[in-house]
User: Fold this.
Amino acid sequence: MLKRSTVTIVAAIAVTFVAAIANFAIISLGNNSKVRAEALIEQPADANNKPLAVSYKSPDRDSFLAEGGRAAVVMERPTDIVKVARGESVSTPIIIKHIAGSNPSSYVDVKISAPNGYILYPASLAATTAEEERQQASLTGKLIPGSIDLGTLVATNDANAHVKVNPGASSTAHVTLTVPKTFPDEMVGETIDLPIIITATDDAGNADTVYIENNSVVLEVIK
Assistant:
């Protein structure tokens, strides 16, 4: 049976993080920052600390389609960095493309959702909490005070969070990024990768025949 591609999270400086890694450091792109920030994002995991994001077998899109995959769904972001001030919201477009395989599906059914369960730990909190504590918080859903569920920063428009895209075509959806007034001072000037979660099926409702290239929206908190 065909397996879909490895889901990846792409950092703002084009470093790719594979979703099979349970946590990783955010890259700081603030004006005065030249080093890796100590803030962390903890990815959702199960009771055995296995990331819930699924790692698939095929190494790349071309291989998947050559092996008989019916379609590939690719997310692109027209804007490199979306700047949002605390207490404000900004709508930003994302583009969903359907690349047909040799046995093409007449359409792909695509659902877009926020990165619920991806927890941000600002540097000061990451330095004072143990990895086991953070993993337990991810498992139970009980956030450590001061941490932030990235899913609360991203909202999808109901009208286009679920789209059908024909072969060779693309569809533009919008997500709204909101930064609360209470967002930590230490995160101002930093960039945060907000994974956009995409699921897709072919015209028969089969997900195994569709390759997904996820991407992220890069948020910069500006004040």
